[in-house]
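Hi V.,

Quick status before I head out on leave. The structure for the redesign project is tokenized and pasted below; the design run finished overnight.
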């Protein structure tokens, strides 16, 4: 722009000056010999006026063309910017891909548009069109195979602009019921050097061919479209990951919570069946306990679905909730239970840490009841060097920790504690009991 300004300044000063100088020299040296000085001055003035009028007309026509060019370029850039802003507001991938095709037609004034999304093997996985109705699409049939000019763009990774489609050596014609098309432009949509799709446009309004300016505009639009497509893909991945994480959370909570409670309830029902034969009078009170436990399991299930706290933690801390589990174990499994807690040691735990440790304790104690054949179990809580440590130990039969397990319990324990930056150590020897030691950083 600075170079153009200097050029016009030179033209605007030196061209009139040169014209006046030449006119004056010709008039004085040529006409001065045959006419009076007054006539010479009049001729110079007349020629100067004519030259000024011609120069002004030329300069204003040139500046007018430049202004129209600038205005047209500004409108084009505004159209690209408006289309790009429209894309940035859409995070639904399917909707976004359709908008990319629709807006690309608006930017280039094309009658038809299409966007090909490629699979890992380079084949067309999705083909989104614009400019034709669904019934017309259905009549055409299956997706294109990536041959012809579409395939040229796919395999070359370069922009292709053609004035007459059927004159290109790679053209293969149109399938039955496909609208006839003439002019064509196709280009890849790239994001950080990687092709995320291929954009095709045909038949510019008015019957003219796509110009180099159309190509530049489409490239600018494609750069914005690539970023929008990648953002929508990442958003979908985050949403899918959130669904998977929520499914895993509910699965762990169900296994560590409700399933363990229902297992305990099942044991009480078995006791009722045995007492029903020997001492029916005891069954009624036991059934009331079963109903209470089932109601608690239902409440826990609601809590897990809506990510609420377990009911055992409603009015107490971690040590109190684990103490309730130990007391239940003592009554139902006839185990000797002990609990050791340092002064106010559980108060420094966050709500998330407390819930995770409670689920781990419940899973560990459920394993003691189902598998350990133990006589006693101990839970302890302490702080060491900025870490919180919870230990669940029993004197049962133990197991070989090196052997793979088909159960979910230990895996759930490790996943829960790893998400909080902690660690878990399972120490067990056959015939010498098991100890589950969980360390969690505080703060």
């Amino acid at each position: 722009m600075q170079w153009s300004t200097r050029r016009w300044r030179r033209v605007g000063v030196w061209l009139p000056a040169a014209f006046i100088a030449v006119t004056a020299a010709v008039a004085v040296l040529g006409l001065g010999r045959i006419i009076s000085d007054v006539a010479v001055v009049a001729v110079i003035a007349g020629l100067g006026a004519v030259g000024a009028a011609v120069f002004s007309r030329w300069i204003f026509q040139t500046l007018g063309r430049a202004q129209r060019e600038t205005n047209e370029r500004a409108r084009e850039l505004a159209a690209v910017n408006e289309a790009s802003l429209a894309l940035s507001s859409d995070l639904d991938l399917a909707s976004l891909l359709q908008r990319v095709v629709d807006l690309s037609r608006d930017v280039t004034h094309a009658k038809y548009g299409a966007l090909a999304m490629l699979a890992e093997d380079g084949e067309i996985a999705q083909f989104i069109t614009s400019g034709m109705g669904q019934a017309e699409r259905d009549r055409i049939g299956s997706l294109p195979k990536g041959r012809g000019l579409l395939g040229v763009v796919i395999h070359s990774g370069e922009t292709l602009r053609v004035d007459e489609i059927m004159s290109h050596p790679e053209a293969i014609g149109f399938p039955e019921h496909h609208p006839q098309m003439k002019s064509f432009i196709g280009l890849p949509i790239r994001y950080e050097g990687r092709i995320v799709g291929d954009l095709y446009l045909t038949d510019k309004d008015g019957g003219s061919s796509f110009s180099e300016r159309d190509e530049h505009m489409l490239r600018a639009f494609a750069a914005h479209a690539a970023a929008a497509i990648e953002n929508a893909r990442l958003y979908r991945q985050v949403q899918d990951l959130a669904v998977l994480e929520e499914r895993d959370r509910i699965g762990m909570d169900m296994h560590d919570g409700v399933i363990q409670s229902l297992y305990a309830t099942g044991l009480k029902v078995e006791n009722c069946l045995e007492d029903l034969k020997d001492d029916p009078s005891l069954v009624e009170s036991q059934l009331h306990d079963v109903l209470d436990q089932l109601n608690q399991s239902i409440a826990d299930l609601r809590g897990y679905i809506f990510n609420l706290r377990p009911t055992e933690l409603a009015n107490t801390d971690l040590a109190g909730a684990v103490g309730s589990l130990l007391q239940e174990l003592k009554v139902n499994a006839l185990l000797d239970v002990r609990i050791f807690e340092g002064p106010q040691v559980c108060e420094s735990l966050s709500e998330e840490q407390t819930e995770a440790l409670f689920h781990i304790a419940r899973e560990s104690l459920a394993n003691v009841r189902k598998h350990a054949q133990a006589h006693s179990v101990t839970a302890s809580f302490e702080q060491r060097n900025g870490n919180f440590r919870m230990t669940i130990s029993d004197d049962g039969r133990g197991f070989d920790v090196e052997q793979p397990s088909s159960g979910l319990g230990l895996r759930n324990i490790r996943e829960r504690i790893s998400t909080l930056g902690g660690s878990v150590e399972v120490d067990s020897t056959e015939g010498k009991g098991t100890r589950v030691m969980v360390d969690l950083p505080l703060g």
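Above is the designed sequence. The first helix runs from residue 2 to 30.

G. will cover questions while I'm gone.

Best,
W.
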